[in-house]
Amino acid sequence: MERAVIIVNPESRNSRKFKEKRSEVLEKLSQKYDVYIWETVKAGDGTRLAERAMEFGASVIISAGGDGTLNEVANACAGKDVKVGILPLGITNVFALSQKIPRNVEKAAEVILNGKIKEVDLGKVVGGRYFHMMLGAGIDGFTIKEMPHEFKKALGAPAHVVIALVKYPDYMPVPIYVEIDGQDFGIGYQVVLANIPNYGGRMKMAPMALPDDGLLDVVIFREAGFINDISHWMGFLLGIHHKMGSIDIHRGRNIKLSGKGVYYHIDSEFGGELPIEVTCVPRALKVIVP
């Protein structure tokens, strides 16, 4: 029987769902796996526990939390011969949503039990972390930097919008220089490197992005300023931003971003300040999907 370790983030927005259905989930998974449950305590524990789980002989590591927990697990499991299952307990669970993994924990457990293996790409900041969803530089990075963790936890997904509105008067757009696979793509004021279509929920920043094509979709917002930002935001909400003349979408394997004082985020967690170089690592993670 294969050994599976469930890495639970007890601080996840919907962790109570796992607590309420713990017996049912374990009963299902125990049909196929020898199951252990380990809980995170602080940031980074998802990576540390996943590494320990592999040393423990686990062939399946289950991320029971949000996209942040999954990012930590992915950073341990990238390039390893281990399968990753997902029990979506976070605020938006964007990656699970993009892969049609149910939010219901019992149904998600059934996917882990009977699903198929999908080898997905990961983005990687050279010298830094992997990401499974996206990297955003510009106002997104600024917003994440300014967001208190407890505020995000309390308010959920709307926290990003609230902080963006409150802090917008303090934000000064700076040109971001973009290079894709050695070619100069000029400047943008917001750049998103997307591994999946979804961004922040069901909305799609890069509608044609695929997590298994060996490429990252590069979304470049060419214009800045209040009127342009409102226009871009409305276009995004309506799903037509990619048809606007001021937004380009390209694809590439190696992307360099530079800009003085520009912040970026990785999978909605603060990453740091440009410049950075990002590569797409093909088929780096084995994920169990429906």
UniProtKB/TrEMBL annotation:
SMART domains (alphabetical): DAGKc
GO biological process, one term: phospholipid biosynthetic process
Record keywords: ATP-binding, Kinase, Lipid biosynthesis, Lipid metabolism, Magnesium, Metal-binding, Nucleotide-binding, Phospholipid biosynthesis, Phospholipid metabolism, Transferase
Entry-linked PROSITE patterns: DAGK
Domain DAGKc, chain residue ranges per copy: 1-130
GO molecular function: ATP binding; kinase activity; metal ion binding
Cofactor: Mg(2+)
SUPFAM superfamilies in the record: NAD kinase/diacylglycerol kinase-like (SSF111331)
Keyword Phosphoprotein: no
One Gene Ontology term, aspect cellular component: plasma membrane
This protein's name: Diacylglycerol kinase family lipid kinase
UniProt source species: candidate division CPR3 bacterium
